[in-house]
Design a protein that fits this description.
The complex is a heterodimer of chains A (161) and B (864). Chain A is an alpha+beta fold and 161 residues long. Chain A is 53% helix and 23% strand. In chain A, strand 4 and strand 5 form a beta hairpin. In chain A, helix 2 packs parallel to helix 5 and helix 4 crosses helix 5. The longest helix of chain A has 33 residues. Chain B is of the alpha+beta class and 864 residues long. Among the domains of chain B are: 96 residues; 157 residues, no CATH class; 72 residues, no CATH class; 147 residues, Immunoglobulin-like, CATH 2.60.40. Helix content of chain B is 60%, strand content 8%. The longest helix of chain B has 24 residues. Chain B starts with 9 loop residues before the first helix and ends with a strand. The chains are: A alpha+beta (161), B alpha+beta (864). Chain A: Belongs to the adaptor complexes small subunit family.
Chain lengths: 161, 864
Amino acid sequence: MIHFVLLISRQGKVRLTKWYSPYSQKERTKVIRELSGVILTRGPKLCNFVEWRGYKVVYKRYASLYFCMCIDQEDNELEILEIIHHFVEILDRYFGSVCELDLIFNFHKAYYILDELLIAGELQESSKKTVARLIAAQDSLVETAKEQANSISNIIAQATK
Amino acid sequence: MNPFSSGTRLRDMIRAIRACKTAAEERAVVRKECAAIRASVSENDQDYRHRNLAKLMFIHMLGYPTHFGQMECLKLIASAGFPEKRIGYLGLMLLLDERQEVLMLVTNSLKQDLNHSNQYIVGLALCALGNICSAEMARDLAPEVERLLQFRDPNIRKKAALCSIRIIKKVPDLAENFINPAATLLKEKHHGVLITGVQLCTDLCKVSPEALEYFRKKCTDGLVKVLKDVVNSPYAPEYDIAGITDPFLHIKLLKLLRVLGQGDADASDCMNDILAQVATKTESNKNAGNAILYECVETIMSIEDNSGLRVLAINILGRFLSNRDNNIRYVALNMLMKAITVDAQAVQRHRATILECVKDSDASIRKRALELVYLLVNDSNVKPLTKELIDYLEVSDQDFKGDLTAKICSIVEKFSPEKIWYIDQMLKVLSEAGNFVKDEVWHALIVVISNASDLHGYTVRSLYRAFQTSVEQESLVRVTVWCIGEYGDMLVNNVGMLDKEEPITVTESDAVDVIEIAIKHHKSDLTTRAMAFIALLKLSCRFPTCSQRIRDIIFPYKGNLVLELQQRSIEFNSIIEKHQNIRSALVERMPVLDEATYSGRRAGSLPATVSTSNGASLNLPNGVAKPTAAPLVDLLDLTSDDAPAPSSSGGDFLQDLLGVDLSPASSQTGTSAASKTGTDVLLDLLSIGTPSPVQSSSSTADILSSIQDNKTSVATLERLSSPSSHSAQASSPAGASPVMDLLDGFTPNLAMPVYPSVVAFESSSLKIMFNFSKPPGNPQTTLIQANFINMSPHVYTDFIFQAAVPKFLQLHLDPASSNTLPASDNGSITQSLRVTNSQHGKVSELHFFIIYTFFPVLILGFMT
């Protein structure tokens, strides 16, 4: 199972964290500091796995962002690499060639996508299209609700004029 | 409306934070935002709750505290609209975790949302439950989730399946409720549901043997068929990754088959064909294919024996191992570690490649490879493998040396065919990476050296040579110093030359040079220096011609700021100067250290350690190096009459006091300046039992040395040699520590009916007189009348006298006549002590200490 997902920029800034195992706030900060120290300093040609506190951290760099997932010793590291890539492709499709700024200003959207991809530290969907469809449906629900709210406030505004 | 809360939009806040140039600026912006959000929270502002929570999540991600937003999440979740719920659940998962009490409050909202008519809201609730539910929530909401496993929309079914995984992990008792619904999921066509269903079954098998049995019987064939279908499926653009249809599903299925096949021949048999197909047909030029092959190999290795398949699997690993991609090599090494239990021979074939991986530039690969090599070592290949590893030690990275050294040492210890090889290899490691060697390792080396009596000469000469080049390596220096101390004469006289050795000429002063370098080298720490002192003491006896020079080396340390060195310097100096006659007995060679005891001790059966020692160096095999003073004090107290033992610290002081029966003769004075008084105490105390109370120091020494034959000196050294033997001796019937043994000789004198009064303690500030009497008819009891006289010009207030005795004594302390002691011999305090000796005839001693304020002085003395 995946214990947590981290997105860290090359400067060590945290862009997304998702914890599937309980870590206290203090532990989280410590984990992030420790891991960014290890991962950001590794050379480009080295393997994508780091052994850490009896777990393995699988990471992959996309442009200026490191996607990291922490898994158990006996899990399949190559599969996790594939999951990371899967996630990145979905993000890319959603934002249209995603960049770090998209993930900063629309961090909540990145979380929504991740929630359609992973639950309880396990993969829930292998089809990019399905994920995109589900996200789009929920986004449109939000849009409709907003429009309704706007039109209601317009009506109220009109009425009270 | 609150003037603050109208504030910035989320986007503007993120911009403002990003524009900050320093951490302080960022903190200021965040503080301002947090204040605004707090104000808004306390006003129960509904319009901006949504935006505030989004901001809080961003702030949380930056690592600032956001606990005040937790209730906002609950309010949002409880509101009716989808947008509010969406952000509310996101905040819940981000800001809270399962251990927070607040989470319980959300159970009801979750329950309602799980039954909501909008499937997306059901989805949100399932997702939150799956990510952060606690055991209580799992129990409360399990029926809802179970029902949702049959929901009409597959996207809800898959979420419910993963949510069930979390539930059964939190509450394994609930597993049986999920077995049947999980089995139905395996018949689905929707990949999302299949993947999650298979995963749920895998986790059910882990927590419930019942589930494992059920799936094994009912589902194995079906799963094999599903795998067959997906392997042979035509191109499916929706699931295609690098030409493979849904590698994720492949992997999940292989994983579940592994669980089902493990330990069950029928199930394993059933999946042979499909495994063979996956292993042979999967393309290995892309990561996705390799991920499947990797999983397949692991399944083949785990299920019941099928040699054909295993050959296939080992071949795949061989191919992986020679891959240029580091990731593939890493997983190959990982898998070979598992394969080694199945087919060690096949793994041995890759030894050369694996050894190459130990030298890889990638730390992760090196670590894996090293662990694998460690498993590969056996009696037949230990020599070449060790040679390779030691050769590599020279060029390896600094941060890898620690691991590498530990493994080499462990290999050498475990597989060494003969002692000389062991010693040779260890010397190489020590000279290459002595600073990385753990203490137990060089302790073990010393034990081995001490047991290899025919190699003493060879070892000490090799160490002498190694020392010349590797003086930086601390543990090499220690072993060298120890060996030269013990076997220095063999170094000089070339005793026990082996054929392969080159002759070497070492003079006595060369040997002393080595020790002197070790003492003076800037990298040497206290332990090394202390060991070097002992070595010098031993050499001073073995090389009489160097005796003066050794004194010159030791002597300057009598003013050293490190108490341990200062003490040793003073003690050894006096031994060299004044006690020629007992010196040779004192510094005899250490008795052979018992390998069995030692290895037993390393295995963790270390007996409770003696309270007199302070931590760090407890398990030194060689007590000579023991930085704590106590055992040495024992030795010196009885051999030299003018070697006071200043206490090393307040902590020890008390420890020593408490451990009276363990270090019976330790004399401690509060400050080293007071050492002279300590001497007096010793002198007085030693003379109590002798017929003439006034005695010259030399005669005391003579008496002592005449009693002390070789045997006792060895015994004393043994006592020194380790804390454990120390305690063992103390508890043995013969029991008593050497001091008692030695002084037992005096007991007849003690039985004299008239007891002289004794000056128990005297310094420029305080004098204590003891008067003894025995009540008639009760020979076991001794009455002591203590008389305290203040010699200083100051009044002592709060004067307290305390005493401690060994266990076989009972001490009764009557109240003192006063607690104020007038200055300048102007009166005295008297206090009586009654000591009852349950083992009459045994010599006892009394430890006492005095606390008097004015000067915060503690004095500890003892008497017999």
